[in-house]
Amino acid sequence: MSPTRAKAAEVAKTAGATAPSKSQRAYQLLHDRIVDGSYSPGYRLVLDAIGRELDMSVVPVREAIRRLEAEGLVTFERNIGARVAEIDELEYHDTMETLSFVEGAAISLAAGLYSKSDVDEARAINEQMRESLAAFDPVKFTALNEAFHRRLSDVSPNAVLGDVIDTCWKRLARLRQSTFSFVPSRALPSVDEHEAILGLIEEGSDPRSIELAVRAHRLATPDAYFHRSHADTSQNRP
Fold first, then answer.
1. Which end of the chain is more exposed for a tag (fewer CB within 10 A), N or C?
2. Rounded mean pLDDT of 141-158?
3. How far apart are CA 63 and CA 27, in angstroms?
4. Which one has a higher pLDDT value, 76 or 175?
5. 120 CB-near residues (< 8 Å, 6+ apart)
6. What is the 3-state secondary structure (H, E, C) of the chain?
7. Is the dihedral of CA 185, 181, 127, 195 positive or negative?
8. How far apart are CA 145 and CA 191, in angstroms?
């Protein structure tokens, strides 16, 4: 085979290997719409309609839904079909409550260890969050939020706390990647609370004060979600 044909064959092979399958395309579409809130909890996923939108049969759509079901984002009910999974409020609240304790402890232990570059990098992330508010993307905002929190907690000298924090973040990602989709009103206060925490660190405040500020900040979002969820339930009652 000539060098030119060999190169062409290599390119074709690479392209074929990286091109997403129909099932992957369906998965990505559904996954993105679930995590950004376009498909809210309880939303019915109609295979025929999704297949027509993507110009494919229902077979790859069904494969994508099975994958989402395995990830806990979709549930399947007999005689009803596939629906976007409801958020387990208890598990979400318990995870956030646990994170408020362990992250507060980790950041308080790191209180005297932060360098100027640590604080500057965390503040730069927070400023990206503030700038993103103009064209709010809850998934992007949530990713930046995690980056901010991890930048502070990673300085903690307690590796076990770090492992627990990492487990909590992974559990939150499984539950739903962006709670800010449901309580966007928490976005601006979150940014302001981040700045207040950085201010406490820079001022050399008592570690206990920093810990309590982190805990209060952490619990504010699940509290907002819980009250929003129950307000919606009350409004839907006859």
1. C
2. 95
3. 8
4. 76
5. none
6. CCHHHHHHHHHHHHHHHHCCCHHHHHHHHHHHHHHCCCCCCCCEECHHHHHHHHCCCHHHHHHHHHHHHHCCCEEEECCCEEEECCCCHHHHHHHHHHHHHHHHHHHHHCCCCCCHHHHHHHHHHHHHHHHHHHHCCHHHHHHHHHHHHHHHHCCCCCHHHHHHHHHHHHHHHHHCCCHHHCCHHHHHHHHHHHHHHHHHHHCCCCHHHHHHHHHHHHHHHHHHHHHHHHHHHHHCCC
7. positive
8. 9
Residues in the chain, total: 238
Q: Determine the pLDDT at residue 16.
A: 47
Alpha-carbon distance of 178 to 187, in angstroms, equals 11
Q: What is the pTM of this model?
A: 0.68
- Six-digit token string for 98: 């646990």
Tell me which of 170 and 211 has the higher pLDDT.
Answer: 211
What whole-number distance in Å separates Cα of residue 197 and Cα of residue 214?
A: 7
**Distance from C-alpha of 76 to C-alpha of 80, rounded to nearest angstrom:** 8
pLDDT tens-digit readout, 17-43: 567 899 999 999 998 888 777 887 789
Place of tokens 């079909």: 81
What the block records as the tokens of 3 is: 């060098």
Rounded CA separation 218/93 (Å): 10
User: Could you tell me which residues come within 8 angstroms of residue 22 by beta carbon, excluding any fewer than 6 positions away?
Assistant: 54, 56, 60
| Separation of alpha carbons 70 and 85, rounded Å | 11
